[in-house]
Amino acid sequence: MALFLVSAYFYGFSFVDYAIERKRFNVKQSVRYVNKNVGIVTGVGVIFAFSLMVPWFSIIACSFVSILSVIAGTVAVHQVTQKETEKIELKKYLKKTQNIDIDENSIFDIQIKRLHEYKRQYMNALYVIYKYLQIKKGNTPTTPITIIFGAKAAPAYTIAKDIIHLILCLQQLIDNDEEVNKYLKVVMVENYNVTAAEKLIPACDISEQISLASKEASGTGNMKFMLNGALTLGTMDGANVEIVDEVGEENAFIFGLSSDEVINNGGYNPMDIFNSDMDIRKVLMQLINGFYSPDDPERFRPIYNSLLNTQETDVADRYFILKDFKSYAAAQKRVEEAYRNEEGWAKSAMLNVANVGKFTSDRTIEEYVQDIWHLEKVKVKMDV
Fold it and tell me: Which of 42, 84, 156, 255 is deepest in the core (most CB within 10 A)?
């Protein structure tokens, strides 16, 4: 009996190793993690118990363990190879629709959603400036990064349009800087819509969910990214809280103030950070010195003002961009470090996919029925 189980165990491993070598992916350990835990631990104990009671069951046990092992390994290999396939598909899509070239071997860091200040696309854009300056100083990332935005703004939402304009200027600047563009790429997807989302979401490595804590009611985009094996970079806001509950904080990149800290932070003055943090000061000063808009140095003054004074808004930095910025930059650093660990990244991606079941609409509607609508179920008998 033991011989049967051991042979089945190693048969499953040899199948997985062969598949990986064929696909040329160095993820043997992560595949073996899934193979071992799904294909062996969950099945062998029960099967072995039955085998002791029923002698002929050992033959079935051998076959069953072997099949489980092969299936688990195949799923793991498929998860990794499918992500690369989807990244290549996105590369082709952007080349066809916008004549933009991206590196499929880079980290795909994607933020796609309605453009609003509380969703903080401009914190992401300010991080691009910060990263640009870091690269110019010689602090280059080990793995190139492609930061992709997709958003639309309401017609009268002036500052949202300014943020889009800033992202486009950053895209152009970096594309034309040979010292930087081998390490960093920025893309603003034109006319973002469902068709574009169908390409972007499956290809994503990092799902940007960075709204200010306490401002996002729920969010469903983060669930779609999770289902497609992307890791969440975000605050403890909206459905991010539930995602982290399901996958564990070690399989996401959480940063920033908590909801309670935001609500009880009435004395916040962004000028204190501007005057004390030289990195943030340099980033903001570049908004008003014409570096990104030589033809109109004052073009991004409204963004600058919204973060530091009340000339444009009634409250300076209403959405705590500067307060959360260094925590956000530190989370991005953790992303770069984690991505270098192929085994760990593959494991986290697969755990995100495996734990997305909670977010099914069936469960959500069931909770609404019980907790909000207080309805009684109606059982319908079907004549067959």
Answer: 255
Kindly give the confidence (pLDDT) of every residue in the chain, 384 residues in length, as a single tens digit, with 9 standing for 90 and above. 443 333 433 334 333 343 333 333 333 344 334 434 444 434 444 444 444 455 554 455 445 544 544 454 455 455 557 899 999 999 999 999 999 999 999 999 999 999 999 999 999 999 999 999 999 999 999 999 999 999 999 999 999 999 999 999 999 999 999 999 999 999 999 999 999 999 999 999 999 999 999 998 667 899 999 999 999 999 999 899 999 999 999 999 999 999 999 999 878 999 999 999 999 999 999 999 999 999 999 999 999 999 999 998 899 999 999 999 999 999 999 999 999 999 999 999 999 999 999 998 888 888 899 999 999 888 888 887
Angle, in degrees to the nearest 10, between helices 342-354 and 57-98: 100
Report how far residue 185's alpha carbon sits from residue 189's, in angstroms, rounded to the nearest whole number: 13
Instruction: Give kind and range of the element (H or E) at residue 304.
Output: helix 301-308
The number of CA neighbours under 13 Å toward the Cβ of 302 is 16
Closest among 296, 15, 292, 320 to 132, alpha carbons compared: 292
Pairing label, strands 253-254, 184-188? unpaired
220: tokens are 């469903």
Distance in angstroms (rounded) separating the CA atoms of residues 286 and 288: 5
Give the SS3 label for residue 341. Answer: coil
In the 8-state DSSP scheme, what is residue 72? H
Grouping H, G, I as helix, E, B as strand and the rest as coil, residue 253 is strand
